[in-house]
Specification:
178 residues, mainly beta, 11-stranded antiparallel β-sheet, 2 helices, 13% helix, elongated
């Protein structure tokens, strides 16, 4: 019987000490607002664009959500995680991503490498006779781009409809048609 009491005390001490450890209380999951930037896309969805030369390009959406390590608190032993969602269009450089913001990670929304939250939305824009509202138009300075580079310099994006237009620096413009 003394062995049972002793064993009970030892287990009680471990439970007590284990309960005193500080827990990780941050929530790594994307919030509804953060997800609203990419909710317009579904995995496997087809998005069609037309160029100003009349070419048609249909891109397939690849959407996934992952969790990554933001940092470790050495005092508490807590691993702080953050969740992110990424949209890839046909494995092209057309990548849209959003990550959760918390104490241990500065979240952001990126469209083709541009942090969208640095831009102020325009009231509206009309493309292909369709008017879109709360439109983010992001453009980079092209004066230092060499003639060998063929990157995207302008992006038009909305939370509701996603990527509406992307323009290459050499003049080719692609506009969403579906």
């Amino acid at each position: 019987m003394n062995v049972v009491k002793w064993l009970g005390c030892v287990i009680g001490v471990f439970v007590f000490l284990g309960g005193c450890k500080q827990k990780c209380e941050d929530d790594p999951n994307l919030t509804a607002d953060e997800l609203s930037w990419v909710n317009c896309y579904n995995d496997g969805q087809k998005v069609t664009f037309i160029s100003d030369t009349g070419s048609i390009d249909t891109l397939k959406v690849i959407k996934y959500i992952s969790t990554d390590l933001a940092g470790r608190d050495e005092q508490t032993g807590c691993d702080h995680l953050f969740q992110y969602c990424q949209i890839e269009l046909n494995f092209t450089p057309l990548i849209i991503s959003v990550s959760h913001s918390g104490k241990w990670h500065q979240g952001n929304v990126n469209v083709l490498g541009n942090q969208i939250l640095k831009y102020t939305p325009q009231n509206s824009i009309t493309l292909n006779n369709v008017t879109y509202y709360n439109v983010y138009v992001m453009a980079i300075d092209t004066s230092n781009i060499s003639s060998s580079e063929k990157g995207v310099w302008k992006i038009v994006y909305t939370k509701k409809d996603g990527l509406l237009e992307y323009d290459y620096w050499h003049g080719l413009k692609w506009v969403k048609i579906n």
